[in-house]
Amino acid sequence: MGLHFYDSSPSGPKEQRGRLGPPLSLLNAGIPCVVWAEDALSIAHRVPTNLFDQQLLVPDALVDNAANAICTDLSYSVTPIREDDRRTWVDMRGFNKDEPHAFDLPSTVFLQHADPQSAYEEEKPLRIFIHGASTFHFDLDDSSRTTLNPEPPGQEYANIRFPTLQAFYDNLVEMLHEPPHPFRHMKLNLRLKCWMSYLSLYTLPGKGITDMEDEETNERVLIPEVLPVLEQVKVENRPMIIRELLPTVTPLHYAESVMERRTLKKERLKRMGKQYHPPAHVAFSPLDRDRGLPPPAPQPPRLTPFLTRNGRGDLWVQWRPLAQYMSMVKRMTR
Predict the structure, then answer these.
(1) Global confidence as pTM
(2) 131 closest CA partner among 214, 56, 192, 62
């Protein structure tokens, strides 16, 4: 059994027509929308994944309007999140004894199809989650962050939008570090990391090979083809992706990763003349809370990967301390 890489979407025209009916309703109603999750992975990014619950991102103020547009146009109805009878998005009891639903949020509306058998036969989504885009860290006003279906199943579907590869990466890293809940939702986190690994395997240049041995140092480094993609990812989100792409590098502990990302985001926004106001608290672990363990004190990462250019103008990854710890490192190496 081997991997198969696709030059076009693994979802055929019939499946795409069925899945894209709800976002088409929003397009016709004039409601901005981005198709997210597995539908975006398969249709826009050539990932051979099954299509499960459909997830759509819309302006926060138009979540209810979006639900009404779909329910008016198609055979869906609004269902309270807490009446979701599947456990797809309910967290694992072993991690959170309260078993919260990942999308029990003020900015999310849940729809279910009125005729599951018909939806199955016509390859339509049985269930749809409509999310306020800001809760999921997606800027719908920035057209550079979205892309079109390169092979739509019909002209009427041609203007439906999906995240670009870089925007998808940014979105996933931001949701992991600034989740929609004050706690870390293990089942949601696992799904987000799964989607990130799919993008790295099937969509990123290299067809699953993202690193190579440096001829001079014998260390594992990223292949040159992936660096221009990472250059378009936000500075604060690159370190996590770089560490994920290098199998010999150990990922940071969560609190340390959050601290590193906040430092880099603050520096980036400062250069733009803006201020960064991070969440008051780092998302906590429900398991540690129930065990009475205090949140781990974050330690500054020893080295952070920075994407930079050498004297020839070539992109490369340089590992160095964050600027705020540079003086400490100099003292220690005297």
Answers:
(1) 0.94
(2) 56
